[in-house]
Specification:
This protein is of the alpha+beta class and 224 residues long. The protein contains six helices and ten strands. It has helices spanning 2-24, 39-46, 59-62, 75-79, 152-159, 188-193, and strands at residues 66-67, 70-71, 94-98, 104-109, 114-119, 131-133, 164-168, 171-179, 202-210, 213-220. The protein starts with a helix and ends with a strand.
Length: 224
């Protein structure tokens, strides 16, 4: 019996020593982080398909020019908005802001090439350093009247049918596009922004739903 206890003790002691050695050498296995499906996953899925989508969404319905008085590709509109009281785009790749209740985060990228909005999730924003709190903005709403937590059917009433959709990881993604990449197509909307667009001549709208509710969206003129 004593011998059996000695063997068990020896095995447990060996496991502890191995575990300590792995920690010291940085070899401790990492527990996979729980990560919510988000825009970055969608971009990886969509980017290779842009040039293959040989039609445009209905530009009159789909195009969203801005949000909360900030217009795409118009830095002067940012300087006149509530956001300008707290930050400027000088030497910044992007700026992020909480709404009043800290339930939403909006990010402006580049020269306001793109705008993205998402619901706050604890594991995304456990470190909120650098995200500015907008105490006077209850919610972020686009020029077309789209806001987070809207029902999918209500979003589609505004935008119409997407040119591409897919489901993944319990989420549904609706994708809209206005592009001059498709043959024999010339968008009047893109023509109006042509002098300001830094990258490809394309407008995209991405809307992510969970349980038929909008949890994240991104729209604008994306980088290649």
């Amino acid at each position: 019996m004593k011998k059996r206890y000695f063997v068990i003790f020896y095995i447990l002691f060996s496991i502890i020593l191995i575990s300590c050695d792995e920690k010291q050498n940085g070899k401790t296995p990492k527990v996979p982080e729980i990560q919510e499906y988000n825009i970055s996953f969608v971009y990886d899925h969509i980017r290779p398909l842009r040039s293959q989508l040989q039609q445009n969404s209905n530009a009159d319905n789909v195009f969203d020019s801005g949000i909360n008085s900030v217009d795409l590709l118009d830095l002067s509109s940012f300087s006149k908005s509530h956001f300008s009281d707290f930050a400027s785009f000088k030497n910044q790749e992007y700026l992020s802001f909480f709404n009043k209740r800290k339930t939403q985060v909006i990010s402006f990228f580049g020269n306001i090439d793109e705008i993205s909005i998402e619901l706050v999730q604890k594991h995304h924003f456990s470190d909120s350093a650098g995200i500015i709190h907008m105490t006077d903005i209850p919610n972020f709403t686009t020029t077309n009247g789209i806001a987070l937590e809207m029902a999918k059917d209500d979003v589609k009433k505004i935008l119409g049918e997407p040119i591409y959709r897919f489901k993944e990881r319990g989420h549904e993604v609706l994708y809209y596009q206005i592009s001059d990449l498709a043959p024999n197509l010339k968008s009047q909307i893109l023509a109006e922004y042509e002098d300001k667009i830094r990258f490809v001549n394309i407008y995209t709208g991405i809307y992510i739903f969970k349980n038929n509710r909008l949890i994240e969206m991104s729209f604008g003129f994306p980088s290649p």
